[in-house]
Amino acid sequence: MRRSITYLILTICGISMVVPFIWMVTTAVKSQLEVNKGNVGFLPIEKYSAYNDGSDEYRIKIIKTEKDSSWVNLIDDEGKIFSAFRKIPNAAITKKTKIKFHFDNFVTAFNKVPFNRYFLNTLIVSFSVVFGVIVTGSLAAYAFAR
């Protein structure tokens, strides 16, 4: 019984340490829009409206909705408008939800700041500290050996 309580406490503590890390990783692969909206959840879920003309499906941005039709902009995969102010029937508009990971966030982050320089600075500081500890430790060991 005592061992079970110990394992339960350790499991709860372990989960409380892992959950923020998982949250950080999943937030890193969300789109900027989803992060700014403050969507709570672990999966990067993307919600959008789509228009199916019978042969192709397009992402759309609804501009104005009327009784039986809507004015929309058709959007390409990069988020740019390629057909503006098209009138389409409301029956052809569907709401879509999909999981989409944005791994290009990492490329953007590495290109915005000089991570090579930061990494070099970290190496210089780390090796300097290690060298200082070795020298100080060696001198202290010599003093204690005498």
Question: Layout of helices and strands, plus pairs?
Answer:
Elements: H1 2-28, H2 32-37, E1 45-52, E2 57-65, E3 69-75, E4 81-89, E5 93-99, H3 104-112, H4 115-145
Antiparallel strand pairs: 1-2, 1-5, 2-3, 3-4
Fraction of residues in β-strands = 25-35%
What overall geometry do the principal axes of the alpha carbons give? elongated
Number of domains: 2
Number of helices: 4
Give the biggest sheet. 5 strands, antiparallel
Helical residue percent band: 40-55%
Order of helices and strands: HHEEEEEHH
In which order are the strands of the major sheet placed? 4-3-2-1-5
Give the low-pLDDT segments. none
Q: What this model shows, in words?
A:
With 146 residues, this protein is of the alpha+beta class. The protein has 2 domains: 101 residues, no CATH class; 34 residues. Helices cover 50% and strands 27% of the residues. It contains 4 helices and 5 strands. The protein has a 5-stranded antiparallel sheet with strand order 4-3-2-1-5, with no helix packed on it. A hairpin with a 5-residue loop joins β3 and β4. The mean pLDDT is 89.
